[in-house]
């Protein structure tokens, strides 16, 4: 059962245990106990045994239980067991949820009173608590992240779970539907051993209801401010990494950036290593304690123009170029030639930016190539293997590379001049319309990396 504190998991567990042939052993992977509070052993496993091999405890639970055995798992329990459980199609998953503001306030009251479950109404303890907006936002973020992980795990493995809400636990028909999902006999009635705590409305449970209302109104419940992202996930592209063999510097290139210039700088330290596999790169890193890895970002508008000139006008993507011309009506000059004047170049580049927006949104049949993929997606791809130690900006490249050389105890190599593409410059064609189109296509990069307008960047 995937759940959280104060979602009704105790009550649901009690009803599961009332079903013939079903046993739920509680919070088996809680960091502080095994199963229930103050219990430190289960099936012959101590806390230390569980820490050494959590999956062995699951195997023992299955072997020593007649019928179905299970446990409750919260977002802060041992993370090592989540993926194996999600991957196992023989394991039935129950996902219990509750309105997060209700679970948060209930959690605060339980902390205040020390009462985490109620079996006799006469023993009820209650309190008003203070709503903390920052704490609640963190609470929601953690719950959402865990729920998204569960959803993704089920989707990629082609499985489903039995979703049940806090309000549904009192519905006998729903619980008997859960029994059918588990392949077990239903219940004649609900378990009566536990009583609902704090049934009052939320505003009566907090000392600052007005502040709570204002904070909740500020939350973007429907994620309206989110920038939609339909880009495919990218691989780390380890074979494209370049390393200075003796200097202990590893360059993780972002295509469309100043790759040739940085490669030239790296060559100033001597021979380069490349064409790595993940295995050979790990070997390279192990042999060079103190190494540093880095990448370089370029302003999205400048990067798009570089790619437009070198790859679309200059050649290299002939099939995609044909699609641009035939299907998207881009006016392109003959291969290898520039437009006859600045206005035509500006119009052609504007069309390319608009095509990039469609391409990144999955609205063209062409692949999202690394040359024009968002830099945010490229860096996320790097992270699948490793994140760079340092992310530099092109406009501060000389100072950034000098700092990097000092980090590995090297005198900075001279920085070669930028490599010119030979076509009309961005300076000659720049306009507010081009900047707006770039912001539209690369909204993720402008937001993630704080890019200002290209004309307002520091001197290049």
Low-pLDDT stretches: none
Instruction: Specify the biggest β-sheet.
Output: 5 strands, mixed
Sheet with the most strands: spatial strand order: 9-7-8-10-11
Helices and strands, in order, run as HEEEHHEHEHHEHHEEHEHEHHHHEHHHH
Distance between the termini: 57 Å
Structural class: alpha/beta
Put simply, the count of helices is 18
Shape: elongated
Count of extended strands? 11
Features:
460 residues, alpha/beta, two-stranded parallel ribbon, 18 helices
Describe this structure in words.
This protein is of the alpha/beta class. It contains 18 helices and eleven strands. It has a domain at 9-218. Helices cover 42% and strands 8% of the residues. It has a five-stranded mixed β-sheet with strand order 9-7-8-10-11, with helices on one face. The longest helix is centred in the N-terminal third of the chain and has 24 residues, at 133-156. It is elongated, with a radius of gyration of 29 Å. The mean pLDDT is 92.
Q: Topology, pairings included?
A:
Blueprint: H1 9-17, E1 22-24, E2 41-42, E3 45-46, H2 47-52, H3 54-63, E4 68-70, H4 82-87, E5 94-97, H5 100-113, H6 133-156, E6 162-165, H7 172-181, H8 209-218, E7 242-244, E8 249-251, H9 259-267, E9 272-273, H10 278-286, E10 292-297, H11 300-313, H12 318-327, H13 342-360, H14 375-383, E11 390-393, H15 397-407, H16 426-429, H17 432-441, H18 443-449
């Amino acid at each position: 059962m995937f759940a959280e504190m104060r979602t009704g998991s105790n009550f649901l567990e009690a009803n599961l245990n009332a079903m013939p042939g079903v046993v739920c052993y509680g919070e088996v992977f809680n960091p502080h106990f095994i199963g229930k509070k103050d219990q430190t052993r289960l099936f012959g496993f101590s806390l230390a045994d569980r820490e050494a091999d959590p999956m062995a405890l699951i195997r023992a639970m299955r072997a020593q239980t007649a019928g179905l055995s299970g446990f409750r798992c919260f977002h802060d329990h041992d993370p090592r067991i989540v993926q194996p459980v999600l991957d196992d199609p023989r394991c039935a998953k129950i996902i219990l949820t509750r309105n997060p503001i209700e679970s948060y306030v209930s959690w605060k009251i339980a902390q205040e009173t020390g009462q985490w479950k109620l079996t006799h109404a006469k023993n009820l303890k209650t309190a008003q608590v203070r709503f903390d907006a920052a704490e609640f936002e963190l609470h929601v973020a953690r719950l959402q992240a865990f729920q998204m992980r569960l959803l993704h795990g089920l989707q990629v493995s082609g499985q489903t779970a039995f979703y049940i809400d806090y309000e549904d636990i009192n519905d006998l028909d729903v619980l008997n539907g859960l029994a059918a999902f588990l392949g077990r006999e239903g219940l004649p009635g609900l378990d009566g051993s536990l009583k609902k705590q704090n049934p009052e409305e939320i505003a009566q449970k907090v000392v600052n209801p007005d502040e709570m209302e204002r904070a909740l109104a500020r939350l973007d419940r429907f994620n309206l401010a989110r920038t939609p992202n339909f880009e495919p996930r990218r691989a780390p592209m380890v074979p494209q990494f370049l390393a200075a063999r003796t200097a202990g510097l590893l360059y993780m290139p972002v295509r469309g950036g100043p790759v040739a210039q940085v490669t030239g700088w790296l060559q100033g330290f001597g021979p380069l290593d490349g064409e790595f596999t993940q295995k050979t790169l790990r070997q390279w890193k192990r042999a060079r304690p103190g190494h540093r890895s880095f990448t370089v970002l370029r302003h999205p508008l400048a990067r798009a123009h570089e790619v437009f000139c070198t790859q679309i006008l200059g050649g290299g993507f002939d099939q995609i170029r044909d699609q641009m011309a035939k299907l998207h009506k881009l006016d392109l000059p003959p291969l290898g030639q520039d437009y006859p004047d600045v206005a035509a170049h500006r119009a052609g580049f504007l069309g390319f930016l608009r095509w990039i927006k469609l391409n990144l949104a999955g609205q063209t049949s062409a692949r999202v190539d690394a040359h024009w993929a968002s830099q945010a997606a490229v860096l996320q791809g790097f992270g699948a293997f490793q994140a760079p130690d340092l992310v530099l900006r092109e406009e501060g490249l000389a100072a950034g590379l000098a700092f990097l050389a000092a980090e590995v105890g090297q005198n900075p190599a001279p920085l070669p001049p930028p490599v010119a593409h030979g076509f009309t410059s961005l300076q000659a064609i720049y306009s507010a319309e081009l900047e707006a189109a770039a912001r539209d296509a690369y909204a993720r990069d402008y937001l993630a990396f704080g890019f200002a307008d290209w004309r307002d960047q520091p001197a290049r």
